[in-house]
Amino acid sequence: MGFNVRRYDGKLLIKPSQAAVRRIRERLAAEVRSLNGGNAIAVIRRLNPIIRGWAAYYRGVVSKEVFSAIDHYLWGRLYRWALRAHPNKSKHWVVDRYFDTFNQSRNDRWVFGDRDSGIYLRQFAWTKIVRHKMVMGTASVDDPALDWYWASRRRKAHAQLGGRTASLLLRQRGLCPGCGTLLLHADHGPQSPREWEQWTRVLTTALRKTSVVLGEVHGDDQTTRLMHADCRRREQRQRQTVQRQQNRRPQGLA
User: Element (H or E) spanning 247, and its range?
Assistant: First the structure.
């Protein structure tokens, strides 16, 4: 499963195994090499799901030092990628172009990002360590009366992937405001870093953000919700129908 279980000075600690760390380093190196000739946006879109997925899988054990070490390793790879992309530019120019405090919520000067679009690469160390929560009593996954309990545990686990989409999922209690049903239906939670990676892609592609005006429009008074893609399209069609009906109404005599 990729974990190292040992006692240190009499205390049992579970950490990512050396083999698991070696595999993720090799994969990151291979992904960065395959992106030679690409741009920063392509790098970020390729690596962010990998980072989120691997960190989500190991966030429940003693991983903080490992996360920081992998971040340092990946920074070196990206720095060399940027130097190869601009062989005629100075190192200072490369650093000023690709590294900055792109994430305004964190005081980190060395975040890799794209200045034109503002998007940036996540870091492993940004993932909060969340200890595994024990199952209540004698709850069984085979008990149909406890389906709500297991579904709730899975939704909370998926939302801990981080990012705005996951925060919205938690705030909405996993429900679609359009139809009132669950946004994510998962009978089985992710069981490996690769499966967690796939969940990050689900959160960013299968679900869509939509801005909805609250009550009367007053400047930028808007909120963001997560909806099923079908629910969003249905809501847009209904809004367009109402708008056409209003436009066809007679405006009275001049």
Answer: helix 229-248
